[in-house]
Amino acid sequence: MNGDTFVLRGRFIAEGPALDCAIRGGRVVSVRRAGRGAPDVGHDDAVLAPPLFDIQVNGIGGLDLQSPELIPEHVIETTRLLARHGVAHWVPTLITGPLDAMAHACRAIVAAMEDRDVARAVPGIHLEGPFISPENGPRGAHPRAHARPPNIREFGRLYDAARGRVLYATVAPELSGAIPFIRSLSRRGVRVSLGHHNATAAQIDAAVVAGARMSTHLGNGSAPHMPRHENPLWPQLAEDRLAASLIADGHHLPVPVLRTFVRAKGAGRIILVSDCMPFTGLPPGRYACFGAPVELRRDGKVCLVGTELLAGSATPLIEGVAHVAAVTDLSVREAIACATTIPARVMGLRYRFSPPKAGSRANVIAFDLDRPRRLLTVFIDGKRWV
To answer: Which domain holds residue 44?
Structure first.
């Protein structure tokens, strides 16, 4: 440390020469080619990147967004914990549940958005239910008792509880009333994503025409056994108007599947999400989630107890970025874009993910590709978190 100046070394998005980024008082003082002196943090091969945007977060560090005891302080602390994992922006995700409980969570989240850090970090809420398939398989770990057909009046109740801050909603397009429902949400400016469904090609096409623009964690939230050709995967992979969010934690999608999905959709239509759960960052063991017992195994896989049915992820988004860069055709630059600029574009947000520039507030993370969870440092809006 040179006085109060912090020097960070690495290559921006793993490209070009190593740089020394000098930061003082939360602002970038200079960005120069790496010198001979030792930096405070980093090295010639460290990766420098913008902080990330995670559009699917259920909880972290023991904090559960589905909890009936959710209060604004829990959302504030979730924002802080995610910042320590290199996430600058995130979308609270509420899964299928009783409408009263979902409305309570919406109110707690928007109340938290009065906090400065949360207001900067959270653009709105993701309703991952209750308008999803009630069938075993497509429903995933969501409670069957509360899955229901789309109902604009019930959606309006949640929308009002969120003071209009619903950013996007996951919908099963084969359900009765789904297509006019999707059209209505799209007209309100709410993004619609297809997920937890078992729709036909025709139903998927009708949903896209009505305004759907994304697939929620494609390849998951689907039947474990499907016909070879007539199934929901191929139409979504082939549809260029649909971006696809993917959980690249090494458990939800086997490497050949992940690689194929990336090739089919193309780099510009992939969104990497964590789908992280309240036990992210906690030791292996059994936990309660979605009203059911789940097990966090030593290998990081999360399943409903006694089954192989996945129940969310315990892997931070930065690990998914590094995994995708390692096992697919995407470069580090492209993988980082899938967790920054692409989700922002699909969600219609004007977030900026720029390289460090002299005079700007420091917004940068540094990590090693082979050990991404151990972030070297994190600066978000001038504040150092790691």
So the answer is: 5-49+354-384
